[in-house]
Design a protein that fits this description.
The chain is of the alpha/beta class. The chain is 29% helix and 24% strand. It is built from eight helices and ten strands. The strands form two sheets. The protein has a six-stranded mixed β-sheet with strand order 6-7-8-3-9-10, sandwiched between helices. A four-stranded antiparallel β-sheet has the order 2-1-4-5, with helices on one face. Bound molecules: adenosine-5'-triphosphate and magnesium ion (MG).
Length: 255
């Protein structure tokens, strides 16, 4: 599904202070994988995310998504397949808009207007899975939610348009321990129940141990896989949280 072929990223190329942030990364991510990425500050983790989001084009090498080279693709174009949630709880939402308005905007991302009509019901059913009661307060201003609630809303917004992959860059870093666990459980659910591939950067080592079927370490721009298990996934008949309206078209493939 995702393939990087010998990808390097060099910042300030040709300048005195040029920096090779990602070195010859060759890797593959399959549908249903939950990849955890750890590594020290400045190792190149966010750089890898930026490549996957088409925010940065590889200096050398090729990024393939579903077999297609992403060279020349923009962030907006790739947003159809790739959702994202980052560290700052305010960056994934529109704080001045209501929860419902946030969900409506998210559901239109890269999706034709016809599907927009099924958004509110699907959004509400997804929201109710959180167990935070947000579905009963759809007119609440998103900026008035707690950090954990904002991240949970941001994750629902990121998956509402049915992306294939969800990229998470330290999405629990600014949350308290209890909220972090709730958001991690939602992350697990998004992966296991909806079959969405997850790639998550964290500095939280207990989370890195507990979650994910693949564990990568990045050090000085080099990516190593240190643990691999087959992805966890359920068939649709086992899914205790069927989506209303726009059902996922196919169950995740297990390897
Ligand atoms: N836009 C940029 N221009 C120049 N150098 C950059 C740029 N972005 C990142 N770097 C450098 O590339 C290296 C990798 O940065 P990156 O943000 O990928 O690290 P990281 O692993 O995400 O670190 P952290 O854990 O602190 O978030 C660092 O040395 C950083 O200073
Ligand atoms: Mg980073």
């Amino acid at each position: 599904m995702i393939k990087l072929s010998d990808v390097s990223v060099v910042y300030r190329k040709g300048e005195e202070n040029e920096k090779c942030a990602l070195k010859n990364a060759t890797l593959q991510i399959s549908q249903g994988d939950f990849v955890i990425i750890v590594g020290p500050n400045g190792a190149g983790k966010s750089t890898l995310m930026k490549v996957l989001l088409c925010e940065l084009a590889p200096t050398v090498g090729t990024y393939y998504l579903n077999g297609k080279s992403m060279r020349g693709f923009s962030v907006t174009q790739v947003a159809r397949w790739v959702g994202r949630v980052f560290q700052d709880p305010n960056s994934g939402i529109f704080p001045d808009l209501s929860i419902l308005e946030n969900l409506s905007i998210a559901s239109k991302k890269g999706v034709r207007w016809l599907r927009f009509r099924s958004c509110p019901q699907k959004a509400v059913s997804l929201l109710s899975l959180l167990g935070l009661g947000l579905e009963k307060n759809l007119n609440t201003r998103a900026g008035d939610l707690s950090g954990g609630q904002k991240q949970a809303l941001a994750m629902i917004m990121a998956i509402i348009s049915d992306p294939k992959v969800l990229l998470l860059d330290e999405h629990t870093a600014s949350l308290d321990p209890k909220s972090s666990v709730k958001v991690m459980e939602l992350t697990r659910q998004i992966n296991e129940q909806f079959g969405i591939t997850v790639v998550m950067i964290t500095h939280n080592m207990p989370f890195a141990e507990q979650y994910g079927n693949r564990k990568w370490k990045i050090e000085e721009g080099e990516v190593y896989e240190y643990e691999y298990r087959p992805p966890v996934c359920l068939t649709r008949s086992e899914n205790p949280f069927p989506l209303v309206g726009d059902q996922r078209r196919c169950a995740p493939k297990c390897v």
